[in-house]
Amino acid sequence: MLGDRWIYNACSDPVYVAELVRTIIEGDASVEAFVETADGMVPRPATAPADGTGAVDLTVPLIESVTATTTDEGTRVTAGSIEVLIRHDLREFMTDRPALIARWGQGQQAVVAVLS
Questions:
Q1: Burial (Cβ within 10 Å: 0-12, 13-18, ≥19) of residue 23
Q2: Concatenated DSSP letters for 48-108?
Q3: What H or E segment, with its residue span, contains residue 37?
Q4: Distance (Å, rounded) from C-alpha 28 to C-alpha 84?
Q5: Which of 38, 56, 82, 97 is the most buried (most CB within 10 A)?
């Protein structure tokens, strides 16, 4: 459980970035999302589930602080020795780097984040 998180500042949130990097490196799936309602926490169905590709040659580092910079490519997040590009343009993009791939609709998919 990541606790309360706000999507607008996720790129500067060390807990979010640590989980993103872990998901990519370990080849894990996205976490379940919940919405708080008057009846309590209710699971929110995933509209674009995402999976990490995995990276056998990398280990998940301890991430305590991050720096986020917006570029033409997207938001580049630096956390110690790790750098991850969170892409804003989801048109076709190929990479051989460890990445997070999102899927939606009728077989559509996109690289949404990539370790560099």
A1: buried
A2: S-EEE---TT--PPP----EEEE-SSEEEEEETTEEEEEES--S----SS-EEEEEETTTE
A3: strand 33-37
A4: 16
A5: 82
Neighbour count for residue 116 (Cβ, 10 Å): 13
Tell me if 101 sits within 8 A of 110, measured CB to CB.
Answer: yes
For the chain, the straight-line distance linking the first and the last C-alpha, in angstroms and rounded, comes to: 27
**Residue owning tokens 């969170």:** 86
Given a contact cutoff of 8 angstroms between Cβ atoms, the answer to whether 47 and 18 are in contact is no
Model pTM score: 0.83
Structure tokens at 41: 């926490």
Here the tokens at position 12 are: 């500067």
Q: 58 pairs with which residues across the strands? A: none
Tens digit of each residue's pLDDT (9 = 90 or more) over 27-75: 999 778 888 899 999 998 888 899 999 999 999 999 999 999 998 889 9
The token pair that represents 42 in the structure block: 């209710």
